[in-house]
Amino acid sequence: MNDLVTLWVPLAVLGLGVLLLLVDVLTPPKKAAQADVGWLVAVGLLVIFGATFLVDVQGVAAYGAYRTGPWALFFQRLFLVAGALAAFGGVEDVQKRTPGRQGEYWLMMLFSLSGMVLVPGAQNLLLVVVAFELMSIPLYVLAAHGKTDPDEASAKGNAAEAAVKLYFVGALSTAFTLFGLGLLTGLTGTTELARIGAAPLQPLAALGLLFVLGGLGYKIGMVPFHMWVPDTYQGARAPFVAFLSVAPKAAGLAVIAGIFAFGMQTQKSLWVGPLGMAAFLSMAIGNLLAVTQSDTRRLLGYSGVAQMGYVLIALATGEEFGLAMVLFFLVAYLFTNLGAFLVVHANAEAGAGFEVDGLAGLSRRAPKLALALACFLLSLAGIPFVVGFWAKLYVLLAAYRAGLVSLVVAGVVLAVIGLFYYLRLLRAAYMTEPTVSRPDERFGGPALGLAIALCVVAVVGLGLFPKPLLDAATRASHDLGVPAAAPHVGAR
Amino acid sequence: MIPIPAFLVLAGILFGIGAVGFLVRRNVLVALMSIELMLNAVNLTFVAFNRAYPRAHVGHTTAFFVIAIAAAEAAVGLAIVLAFFRLRKTVRSDAADILKN
User: What does the alpha-carbon distance between residue A456 and residue A466 come to, in Å, rounded to a whole number?
Assistant: First the structure.
C-alpha cells in the first residue's frame, strides 16, 4: 500500500491513460470524429502537475528500486508540463489528421509519459531499463502516426521513414546500453545503481561505461549519435516532434546524471573526458550544420543537438552546482524549444510550409506569432532577459568554476555562430515581404495558441525571475547527493 | 567446466557480429535480426556473469526482462517496417532517403 502512495505520479499518469481508454471506447462512433480528447489529456496532466505541489510524498518503494524526492519530482514536473504543452499544441492537429482515432495518439503519449516519470526515480538498473523502454516504444509508434496522409501526396511516407529511423537508432542504442550495463552489473553482482558506482576500476568497467554513454547518447541526440535527429524531426508531425525534442532528452539526461555524476563519482577520471569531448562536438557540429539548413525543423533539430552540448558541459563538471545548472537548462530548453516548434507548426498550418522562407512576413501576417517566435529564438540564442540567457550563463559559469575553461571558450564562440542562424529565422519573419498572403489564413486553433502563449509566459517570466527555478534546481541536484565542489567544502 | 571469460568473449563476438550486420546490411529485416542478435549477446553476458554470484540470481532475472523488452521492441519494429514497406514497396534501407538536406 505504501508503495502505491510513493509511486503516485506514475500511477496517476497511467490512471489518466486508462480513463482516456474508457472515454475513447464509450464515445459513440458518430461523435468520435469531433471528440477533443486531447483537452482531457492536457488538463489532466496539468492537474497532476498541480497536485505534485500539494502532495508531499518522499521515500522509497519496490524494495528500494524507486525513490521519490526533490530530484525525481523536479523531472516529473518537467515531463508533466512538457506533456501538457505538447497536448495543447497537438489537439487540433491530431483531430484533423486522424478523425475518429484520436484516442490512439493520446494513449501512446500517456503510456510514454508514464514510463518517463518513472525514469528519474529509478534506483535499480532493471527499473531504469524497463522505464526507459516504456517511454521509448510508444514514441516509435507516435513517430509513425498519421503516416498515410491523403492531402500531402509529396510527403507520403515521410512519417514512416521518420519512424524507421527513430526506431532503428533507438533499438540499437537500447542494445548498446544493455550490453554496457551487463558488463557493469557483472563486475559488481548487483543491479542497484548506488552499488554499481563502486565497481572496481578496470578495463571492462571502462568499456561498459563507454557503451552506456553511447547508448544513452543516442537518446539525447549528442554527437556522434545525432544522425537520426534532423530526419525524424523533419518527417514526424510537428506537435509530436515538439514533445520528442524535449521530454525524452531530459529523461536520458536524468539517467546519465544518475549513473555518472552520482554513481561513478569515484571514477570521475573515466567519464569526464568523454563527456567533455561529446559536449564540444555536439556544440560544434550542431551549430555548424544548423547554419546550412533550409528546413526550419531540421534547423531546430541541429540547434537542439548544439543545445545538448551545453547541457553536457554542465554535466561534465560532475559537481552539484553543475548538475543544478543541467536542470535549469533543461527547463529553459523545454519551454523554448517546444514553443519554437509549435510556432513553426502554426505557420505551416497556415499553408506556408516548413521552409525558412515560409516564415517570410510573419510579423505582418501574424504579429503575435512573430513576437512569440522572437522570444523563443532569442532565448535559444541566449540573449539577455529571456530564460535561455540565464541557462547558458549558468552552464558556462559552472564549467568555469570546475576549471573547464577550454569548454567555456568553445561554448561562447559557438554561441555566436548559433546567433547567426537564429537571427536568420528572425530576419525571415520580420524583414522580408510575405510571399503568400491570404486574408483567411488560420494559424492553428485556440489550443495551439494557448500552448504557445504558455510557453511565452514561461520563457519571459523565468527570464525576469529565474530565482525560484534556480532554487528548485539546486534543491533537486542536492537531493541526488553529488559531493559539492572542493572549494565549496573549504568555504564551509 | 567452461570459465566465465569464455562466455564473455563469445558474447562480445555475437554482439560484434550483430553491430557489424546492422551497419553493413541494407535490408531492414536483417537489421532487425542483427538487433535481436545483439540483445541475445546481452542475455548471454548477464547469464554468464550470474555464475560469479550464484546466490543473487541477478543475471537470470535481468535476462528475463531483456527477453521481454526485445519481444516488445520487435513487435513495434515489425509494424513500423510493415508500414514503411506498404508506402515504399521495398524493405531496403537506402529507400529511406526522402528526408535529407
Answer: 15
